[in-house]
Design a protein that fits this description.
Length: 371
């Protein structure tokens, strides 16, 4: 086994070798200090001398447990599992993948008090730092999720996790290899945003997103209706149907978004009906849910009782939604999306699918006008 470590340039895990202070990862060090303070342990030097796993072994606790000190001075144990996310870039892919996957365990994580601690290590571009993180993961009993474009870095992570018996998942390599095989092209192995890479963070996509965000901010809440023809997607709906946050989310993906509120007694701008109607989308919501949202909004804005009752009472809410429904009925080309049980990401996914299907003229047959 020692020969395997030597070939990779990794010290044997059974032999503790001191790491020079100047080579300790600042991010790892900060995290270790935070864990130490939460566990009530004293700090020695720039990093913790005793890991949580070692402390747990001393007192017979399972791996993944952490200890906090209550106000009375007694120890309170919180059993949780750690997930390390390692990336040679920003770590966005790894972070979003883990976040999406954890969504499948909400029934356990929330209802049964089974905490999970996630820790992101971004910009990991040398093997030495990678190994430091993996060694720490081994001590903490953590799982490792990594997105490393450099094949040698990815292989080092794989082998180190195998040697130290760390559960791990390589997110990037399988899909990269599959696409490489399909296209018949060898991947570059260069991380996104690396110096000299053509599609860097300051490339065409970056500036397109900035332009889209600036446009979307200026077009928020029906402002500047004369510019609706410049928008790629137009959202309509009554107050508090999530038009602004949805617009912002889509703008960060590089789409120029305008949103137009539907208000009883106020005519919609004529330009809304003069633009390409295939880029207009209507939003609706369950009246009871909308009533709750509006009540909280009215409370936060300090509305007086008269305005509050008009704005958030169920009868007025229903009239508002019925008025919007009548407008949607007069414009059957507009898809109507019910956002009641949807996250912003889900609503955005529906809109983008319909938007691109229409652009390519390959729309699937529609069972219902509502999505």
């Amino acid at each position: 086994m020692s020969s395997e470590f030597n070939r990779m340039g990794i010290s044997d895990p059974e032999v503790e070798t001191p790491v020079p202070k100047h080579k300790v990862s600042p991010q790892l060090n900060r995290w270790s200090r935070a864990r130490a303070m939460r566990s009530g342990r004293k700090l020695g030097g720039s990093s913790c001398k005793v890991s949580v796993a070692e402390r747990n072994r001393e007192v017979g606790r399972p791996l993944g447990s952490s200890v906090s000190i209550s106000s009375s001075g007694s120890e309170e144990e919180t059993v949780g599992k750690a997930i390390y996310m390692v990336s040679d870039g920003t770590g966005w892919t790894a972070e979003q993948s883990v976040k999406t996957a954890l969504g499948q365990f909400e029934h356990c994580l929330l209802d049964r008090g089974c905490p999970v601690n996630t820790h992101l290590f971004s910009g990991v571009d040398d093997v030495e730092r990678l190994i430091q993180i993996i060694k720490q993961a081994s001590k903490e009993g953590a799982m490792l999720i990594y997105t490393l474009a450099d094949p040698s870095m990815s292989e080092s992570a794989k082998q180190a996790c195998k040697i130290w018996n760390i559960p791990s998942t390589d997110i990037l390599s399988p899909i990269t290899e599959a696409i490489s095989s399909h296209l018949g092209i060898t991947p570059s192995g260069i991380p996104r945003g690396a110096p000299g890479r053509r599609n860097s963070y300051l490339g065409e996509d970056y500036f397109r997103r900035i332009e889209a965000i600036e446009f979307t901010i200026k077009q928020d809440d029906g402002a500047m209706p004369e510019n609706l023809h410049k928008a790629e997607i137009i959202l309509t709906g009554v107050s508090r149907t999530g038009k602004t946050p949805l617009s912002t989310y889509l703008a960060h993906k590089g789409y120029k978004i305008a949103n137009v509120p539907i208000v009883m007694g106020i005519e919609l701008p004529k330009t809304l009906f003069e633009v390409d109607q295939r880029k207009v989308f209507g939003l609706t919501i369950n009246p009871n849910v909308l009533r709750s949202i509006r009540r909280e909004r009215a409370k936060s804005l300090g509305f007086c009782d008269e305005i509050k009752s008009n704005y958030s009472e169920i009868d007025y809410v229903r009239q508002d939604l019925e008025y919007a429904t009548s407008i949607y009925a007069l414009n059957p080309v507009w898809p109507v999306i019910d956002i009641t049980a949807k996250a912003i990401e889900e609503t955005a996914a529906v809109i983008l699918r319909l938007y691109h299907d229409r652009k390519r003229k390959c729309s699937m047959p529609r069972i219902s006008k509502r999505y």
